[in-house]
Design a protein that fits this description.
Order of helices and strands of chain B: HEHEHEHEHEHEEEHHHEHH
CATH topology of the largest domain in chain A: TIM Barrel
CATH class of the largest domain in chain A: Alpha Beta
Structural class of chain B: alpha/beta
Number of helices of chain B: 11
Number of strands of chain A: 18
Strand order of the largest sheet of chain B: 7-6-5-8-9
Radius of gyration of chain A: 21 Å
Number of domains of chain B: 2
Largest sheet of chain A: 8 strands, mixed
Oligomer: heterodimer
Number of helices of chain A: 13
CATH superfamily of the largest domain in chain A: Metal-dependent hydrolases
Strand content of chain A: 15-25%
């Protein structure tokens, strides 16, 4: 089985290469990349005017299985990812029951093997039952295939526990992903603390709740040498702290999400639950700091924090609606559109944030285009204009604040291991 | 001709000066009705108003009920005690059920900010917010402004000082929106723990000490302080609160001549206001209650009556009587 993609603009961020060429897929791998390739047996894909780049690696998502299959399953989530040009997804442990044991890791990997069309990498919980009290079996989960350890969805409130977890996880070289939230400061707070929370008369989720825990965890990372990845950075001060601790030599990486770069808390006006997320959308000043962090490398990568919820769950009063938005199917047009534009990036620089850089943050394979490597690829039509319409999503959920946005560029096809999984 | 533009009254944020003045003007006519021997007009005869109270309330619920019945509407009063966060579906389900039973308008009080807005998205009849969480209480602000206007003849240019727990106060927020729209100067006074973040950006002045902040005021509006705020460490004790933020006789002597003292009720006598102040000639607290009925009558009339073709009420005249054709 061979596929020959002809006349594409091939973008390989890891090598900073941007050229017109052909690419041959054979037995699930990239067999050759060259100016003019021909192969009598190969199925020819004419890609004149299209871009070809590595499949995206999304290191932060919620696939909701087991327990919340009405929101999403590993199968539906993987199809949504494929539709978004994402070929590898890291899924968080806050399912029901949580992924807090090697058996649970095996369950996710087994479901992925049987039902998913993209690569799925599970995260193991940091504490048993994600209760923030007792350490989960970190070593055994890593051995079973967990790629990182995290109680994402909740802040780890106990500093003693976090210290011990970092010391212990360092033995297994397991990265800890920190959802930074000092929950004493965020109780009952659906949106950012500031002008908008005051306008709507709701409690505000203050930026300090993120910055305090990010600071604590980086202090502990520096002390223990444990790898730390800061999830979904939203506040300007957190960017400053990451810059400081990276300069100090702490083994820290960080991600932000497309919504923090393209929306502010103004989007929550009218009690819009589809703009309610954790951490919350912040201000234009925070956005500027996040972009500066992307430009100077303080923030390593972008991840979606794809967080599906049913329409009924989101169609509640703002305080009662759950946090989170779906992100797989809007990632690429936002990345190669408004985010790239405002960052002042070339396409290669923008794509780097969701390919090899995100993969390297968690030391995952993928995110690169190289001969001999797996054919995880995206064919992209940069000219296709479209209006975001969540009813067309392949995700089971529709909770997006981007409905009605006019965006440019669409995924034409996605390949995982040479198999066309979308398009 | 001015009119109430929105189908609902969810808050005073975004409501125009003309709309607020229309309500206040209409309420003058409604207040006149209350001085008659027969305090009832047939304006909303045949209409059904639901009062959905998801939070305990005596005065607001009664005021709305009286307002609707004086306009001859039928009122269904539903009081449901609930926990602080209620699943949204139940509110919508209840309201939709009552809607298909023929309700023409819905008054809602709820402990969650934005609950009336959520309801309004799911129902096709006018929704009136009778207080939602810590967001707005528009009819309270309208009756406050009506009372201010009655005493000062105007709103524009007045200095209105609102004292206390601004953070949790829907009364303060609605007053802020309405008063700023009408051109008053609004000053919030309270401890930093009880003042919402960045509220200055919305156009109000913030001070943290009552002394030195009320002497130039035309209106002093004292908010009720909830005892549970003390246990949540917003301030150390009610005694300390009273010492720094309570209105007492000594402070009353320093108020500007002609100024009025307001309170949305119910009062904590001896905490934010002493009995001497509450019963002083400057206190207009009972007038506020009376005016509340008139303002709510006006709003019900403008939203539910007159087949959405509201007529401003002529001075000293009863509102135009609308008789539904079926009756």
């Amino acid at each position: 089985m061979k596929t020959l993609i002809k006349h594409a603009r091939i973008l390989e961020p890891a090598a900073m290469e941007d050229r017109a060429a052909d690419l041959l897929i054979e037995d699930g791998r990239i067999a050759d990349i060259g100016l003019v390739l021909s192969d009598g047996e190969a199925e020819i894909v004419e890609a004149e005017g299209l871009w070809l780049f590595p499949g995206l690696v999304d290191i932060h998502s919620h696939l909701r299985e087991p327990g919340f299959e009405k929101k999403e399953t590993i199968a539906s989530g993987s199809r949504a990812a494929a539709a978004g040009g994402i070929t590898s997804v890291v899924c968080m442990a806050n399912t029901s029951p949580p992924i807090d044991s090697p058996t649970a890791i095996e369950f996710v990997l087994d479901r992925a093997e049987k039902t998913a069309c993209v690569r799925v990498y599970p995260v193991g919980a940091l504490t048993k039952g994600m209760e923030g009290k007792e350490m989960a079996p970190i070593g055994a989960m890593i051995d079973a295939g967990a790629v990182a350890i995290s109680d994402d969805g909740r802040g780890v409130m106990d500093s003693y526990l976090m210290l011990r977890a970092m010391q212990y996880a360092a033995v297994f070289n397991a990265p800890i992903i920190s959802h930074c939230e000092e929950m004493n400061l965020t109780e009952g707070a659906p949106i950012n603390e500031g002008r908008m929370s005051t306008t709507l008369g709701v409690m505000g989720w203050p930026r300090e709740a993120e910055t305090i825990q990010a600071g604590r965890d980086m202090i502990l990372s520096l002390k223990t040498g444990a790898r730390l990845h800061i999830a979904h950075v939203s506040a300007a001060e957190t960017v400053d702290l990451i810059r400081y601790y990276k300069a100090k030599g702490a083994p820290v990486t960080a991600e932000t999400a497309p919504h923090y770069l393209t929306l502010t808390d103004d989007a929550t006006d009218g009690f819009n639950a589809n703009a309610k997320m954790n951490p919350p959308l912040r201000t234009a000043e925070d956005q500027e700091a996040l972009f500066e962090g992307l430009r100077d490398g303080t923030i390593d990568c972008i991840a979606t924090d794809h967080a599906p919820h049913t329409e009924a769950e989101k169609d509640q009063q703002l305080a009662a609606a759950p946090y989170g938005i779906v992100g797989f199917e809007t990632l690429l047009p936002l990345l190669l559109g408004p985010i790239m534009e405002r960052a002042g990036f070339e396409p290669l620089e923008a794509l780097a944030l969701c390919t090899y850089k995100s993969a390297r943050a968690l030391k995952l394979a993928g995110g690169e285009l190289r001969v001999g490597g797996p054919a995880d690829l995206v064919l992209w039509d940069p000219q296709a204009e479209h209006v975001v319409d969540s009813t067309q999503f392949l995700s089971k959920s529709r909770n997006t604040p981007y409905n009605g946005w006019k965006l440019k560029g669409r995924v034409k096809a996605t390949y995982v291991g040479g198999d066309k999984v979308f398009g | 001709m001015s009119r109430w533009n929105s189908r609902d009254c969810l808050g005073l944020r975004g409501v125009s000066r003309e709309e607020i003045e229309l309500v206040l003007e209409t309420a003058r006519g409604m207040k006149e009705i209350q001085t008659r021997t027969v305090k009832k007009v047939p304006t909303l005869r045949g209409k059904v108003v639901i009062n959905l109270f998801y939070e305990p309330s005596t005065r607001t619920a009664t005021s709305f009920e009286l307002a609707a019945t004086r306009l001859s509407a039928d009122v269904i009063q539903i009081q449901t005690g609930t926990s602080s966060v209620v699943k949204g579906e139940s509110v919508v389900d209840t309201a939709q059920t009552l809607r298909v039973m023929g309700a023409d308008g819905c008054v809602i009080r709820h402990s969650v900010s934005g609950a009336p807005h959520h309801l309004a998205r799911h129902i096709d009849i006018p929704v009136i917010n009778a207080g939602d969480g810590t967001n707005e209480h528009p009819t309270q602000a309208l009756l406050d402004m009506f009372t201010m206007k009655q005493h000062h003849g105007r709103i524009e240019g007045l200095t209105v000082v609102i004292v206390g727990d601004i953070l949790h106060s829907r009364v303060a927020r609605s007053n802020m929106w309405g008063l700023l729209t009408l051109g008053a100067k609004v000053r919030f006074v309270g401890p930093p723990t009880l003042v919402p973040p960045e509220v200055e950006k919305l156009g109000v002045e913030v001070r943290h000490k009552l002394d030195g902040s009320f002497e130039d005021a035309d209106v002093i509006n004292l908010l009720r302080v909830q005892k549970e705020r003390m246990t949540a460490n917003f301030f150390p004790s009610l005694a300390e609160y009273s010492r720094y933020y309570g209105m007492n006789e000594e402070r009353l002597k320093r108020t500007k001549p002609g100024s009025i003292v307001m309170h949305p009720g119910p009062m904590n006598r001896g905490v934010e206001i002493t009995t001497e102040v509450a019963e002083s000639p400057q206190s207009v607290i009972l007038e506020q209650v009376t005016n509340g009925i008139a303002v709510r009558m006006a709003l019900l009339y403008l939203l539910i009556g007159a087949e959405r073709d509201p007529q401003p009420v002529k001075k000293d005249a009863a509102p135009a009587i609308d008789t539904p054709s079926l009756f």
